[in-house]
Amino acid sequence: MEYTELLAGRRSTRHFDTSREVPDELLERVLAAPLAMPHAGNTYDWRGVVLRRRDRDPDRWPAVFSALLEQSYVEEADVLIVYAVQPGWWAEQYRANVATLVERGLIDPARHKILLETVGDGIGDPKALTTGLVGEAMMGVTAGMLAAIDAGLGATVTGCRPGDLARALELPDGVVLCPYGILALGWPAVAGDGAAPVGAPKPPVGTMYFSDRWGGPSPVGRS
Ligand SMILES: Cc1cc2nc3c(=O)[nH]c(=O)nc-3n(C[C@H](O)[C@H](O)[C@H](O)COP(=O)(O)O)c2cc1C
Question: Which DSSP letter does residue 188 get?
Fold first, then answer.
């Protein structure tokens, strides 16, 4: 699908066809899409836990479903992908990874002097680091979502109770669940079969941006 058309038509799917599975090769395309996105400090620290409807563990699923807020489309989704990040592990890799970027000529010490000095200062604010890595993972969620929709699937980003979900999926200490880094996927239910209505209209783009400072005039539609 052409990218502009893909974006214009993207809406969240809240009713999936439970009679159709997502073929493995299609799922693998969705799983590969996040790797196309940028990654901080030359490493991918995010990992995903893939839950397939057909493989639901009757002992584990009730806790997972409860942590996913018991939303009906989550129950119907053929695939759920839960993303988490590893800030401690990322920090361990950081210096070595930047050194690799320098070796490859992607960072030029002459032109990125201040960036390289900050590497020597350590990782900085751990909270900001975690936020940044969650943001990185969310870019991956976006890429996976668009790959899924491009292939005709429906997809919805989903919230949860992160602590409960982390426990249900046995995340180890130091691994941080992305609170909204959950992608529910499946074939959309066909219209007339109870398919949920699409969401609210989008705001005009001009209302979303300021020029120069918060509250400045919109940069859109000035010409
Ligand atoms: C961070 C985030 C969390 C979301 N969590 C949920 C959710 O738990 N349940 C849900 O039905 N939709 C959820 N959504 C989808 C939004 O409700 C949806 O994107 C919004 O209503 C706009 O509709 P659209 O996606 O069809 O354009 C979430 C979206 C984002 C970005």
Answer: B
